[in-house]
Amino acid sequence: MTSTATRGTGAARQRIIDAAVALFFEQGAGGTSLQMIADRSDMTKAAVYYHFQAKEDILLAVITPALEGVAQVAEAAAATRSRSASLDILITGLIDQVIENRRLGAVLWADPTIAQVVVSHPMLQDVGIRIHRQLIGPNPDPATRVRVSMFGASLKAASDPALADLDADTVRQQMLDAARRLLGLRPPRSAT
Amino acid sequence: MTSTATRGTGAARQRIIDAAVALFFEQGAGGTSLQMIADRSDMTKAAVYYHFQAKEDILLAVITPALEGVAQVAEAAAATRSRSASLDILITGLIDQVIENRRLGAVLWADPTIAQVVVSHPMLQDVGIRIHRQLIGPNPDPATRVRVSMFGASLKAASDPALADLDADTVRQQMLDAARRLLGLRPPRSAT
DNA sequence: GTCTATAAGACGATAGAC
DNA sequence: GTCTATCGTCTTATAGAC
User: Fold this and answer.
1) Contacts of B157 in chain A (CB under 8 A)
2) Nearest-CA residue of chain B relative to A184?
3) How many alpha carbons fall within 13 Å on the CB side of residue A106?
4) pLDDT in tens, B1-41
5) pLDDT tens digit sequence for A130-167
């Protein structure tokens, strides 16, 4: 269904993707070789090449589903008229995304190799540009822009090893609370 | 004077370090080869090896001065009795550090390869642990820990290409302001 | 669908000329 | 202090057996 897929029904393919995410998180995408991915997937290098034609295809398979989640958040926010409600959908949705897959969040928002791949694929880059515009809103003064950049970078906290002992829901709630304060928002309805 | 230095008086050595920082920022430390560093420094690979015995020595030469700046911030904060004053020294000092070298900040706080090198050198790791403890303070509840993680990650904003057109002082002031709100601090004396 | 075997080149690192 | 030339290893990627 997805254009990235070359062959493979799914089981071994997913094992490769999971191994890749773990290694990208630990070593960075640039520091990860196909041999490492093959070893973690309990396969040979050649078996990996059966499922993916090139290393970049593995990168894309890792990135694409995550960016699809982000794209859905952008759509939901665009469907709202009120600026403050739309902003709240954005930060809630983005935090939900990085909590849902805590490791993937770090890879997606911080790895330079991933950033290069995203930039070289306009369809992926558009998602990033669109959500960035929505976050900044109609008033792009320096204060807002700096806050939005800090918020984006702060999403990496979800995968901070120092917070690994906290359960997902606590991190989610605290991140949401802190993000609202960072961006200068009131809680939408019920207070903390 | 520094134990990292192997040979070289300084000129070519610094060119290598500058090239390395730029490449680590663009490609990640794991994705940067000695050949790339040599090309950017307008040298051959062998000439680079005259100044540094191994690739890791280049990493250390990049990290060490930056971490020394962080260590000074930690010392200044430790010399203060008041908790809120010490916290303010910490966030002001750390933001000053990442503004001073906007590219190095991103590398230092986000690259997995750098993180691995820091962990393997106890002296460097201690600096990170100490400043983390000081930021969290005597009351390590989940809310504080999540906020501190977000603050640390948010320092990467200083090197966000989307903010490259803003002058350093604007970014510094806005980051400081946002960080205080994120961590729930009052401005120490004069308001914004 | 997974394997062995291998190609062609880039990798980190060294030796020795100048 | 910088060079060329080279080492053995590891890299991405392919071909073809099973």
Assistant:
1) 146, 149-150, 152-153
2) B181
3) 23
4) 434 445 656 788 999 999 999 999 999 999 999 999 999 99
5) 999 999 999 899 999 999 999 999 999 999 999 999 99
Domain boundaries defined on chain A? 11-56, 63-183
Output the six-digit token pair for B16: 């290598």
d(C-alpha B115, C-alpha A180), whole Å: 29
- Tell whether domain B11-56 is in CATH 1.10.10.60: yes
User: Is residue A16 helix, strand or coil?
Assistant: helix
| Residue B43 DSSP one-character state | S
- Closest by CA to A149, choosing from B136, B165, B115, B132, is B165
Rounded Cα distance between A166 and A158, Å, is 10
Number of separate helices (H) and strands (E) present in chain A: 10, 0
The reported pTM is 0.91
Tokens of A85: 């409600």
Which residue's CA lies closest to nucleotide C2 at its C1' atom?
A47
